[in-house]
UniProtKB/TrEMBL annotation:
<keyword id="KW-0119">Carbohydrate metabolism</keyword>
<dbReference type="GO" id="GO:0005737">
    <property type="term" value="C:cytoplasm"/>
</dbReference>
<comment type="subunit">
    <text>Homotetramer.</text>
</comment>
<dbReference type="GO" id="GO:0008968">
    <property type="term" value="F:D-sedoheptulose 7-phosphate isomerase activity"/>
</dbReference>
<feature type="binding site">
    <location>
        <position position="175"/>
    </location>
    <ligand>
        <name>substrate</name>
    </ligand>
</feature>
<comment type="pathway">
    <text>Carbohydrate biosynthesis; D-glycero-D-manno-heptose 7-phosphate biosynthesis; D-glycero-alpha-D-manno-heptose 7-phosphate and D-glycero-beta-D-manno-heptose 7-phosphate from sedoheptulose 7-phosphate: step 1/1.</text>
</comment>
<dbReference type="GO" id="GO:0008270">
    <property type="term" value="F:zinc ion binding"/>
</dbReference>
<feature type="binding site">
    <location>
        <position position="125"/>
    </location>
    <ligand>
        <name>substrate</name>
    </ligand>
</feature>
<feature type="binding site">
    <location>
        <position position="65"/>
    </location>
    <ligand>
        <name>Zn(2+)</name>
    </ligand>
</feature>
<feature type="domain" description="SIS">
    <location>
        <begin position="37"/>
        <end position="197"/>
    </location>
</feature>
<feature type="binding site">
    <location>
        <begin position="52"/>
        <end position="54"/>
    </location>
    <ligand>
        <name>substrate</name>
    </ligand>
</feature>
<dbReference type="Pfam" id="PF13580">
    <property type="entry name" value="SIS_2"/>
</dbReference>
<feature type="binding site">
    <location>
        <position position="61"/>
    </location>
    <ligand>
        <name>Zn(2+)</name>
    </ligand>
</feature>
<dbReference type="InterPro" id="IPR004515">
    <property type="entry name" value="Phosphoheptose_Isoase"/>
</dbReference>
<keyword id="KW-0413">Isomerase</keyword>
<dbReference type="GO" id="GO:0005975">
    <property type="term" value="P:carbohydrate metabolic process"/>
</dbReference>
<dbReference type="InterPro" id="IPR050099">
    <property type="entry name" value="SIS_GmhA/DiaA_subfam"/>
</dbReference>
Amino acid sequence: MTTLHQRVQNHFAESIAAKRQAADLLSEAAAEAALLMFRALSEDGKILLCGNGGSAADAQHFAAEMTGRFERERMELAALALTTDTSALTAIGNDYGFEQVFAKQVRALGRTGDVLAAISTSGNSANVVEAVRVAHERDMKVVAFTGKDGGTIAAMLRDSDILLNVPHPRTARIQEVHLLLYHAICDCIDTMLLEGV
Ligand SMILES: O=C(CO)[C@@H](O)[C@H](O)[C@H](O)[C@H](O)COP(=O)(O)O
Ligand SMILES: [Zn+2]
């Protein structure tokens, strides 16, 4: 029987392997995502983020690093997680259904030139799929953080959007790679802001 210690070590080994694979597969797309977000922020746009469960936490984590800071002091950056307003989430969920909780906020707050960061490890959460649909309706670009085969979200992206798909079967591993990706994106945005690279 695998001991608990071995189980923990297996988690580390699997996570390291998933990150190694992602470094080859996704570094270029992550740099492009940083550039796309930097350009939007430079032109007075904002980043809206959405996701469920662990990905809701990721949406909030990334937004906090934009409005507060990542590692270096710099100006505040406009980002908002659509997962935090319990009045909006309960009213929209109750009145229109849970699929609409992000989409209606995107329709209300999203403008052309803004970016939607859509986070879903399956790529199939209906409320995130709807948010992407409305972002397109609003002429917003989308950076999709997905996993497995990318699901419905990967299939609906436009050429001007960016897909960061982690082709791993396990949700936890996908989330861990998403975290690394958006920290790298934060660093790239800071570098462009502070060093003009
Ligand atoms: O964090 C975890 C599992 O690690 C869960 O809370 C997970 O985020 C939830 O089951 C989500 O509802 C999954 O949605 P999605 O990533 O497929 O869009
Ligand atoms: Zn989790």
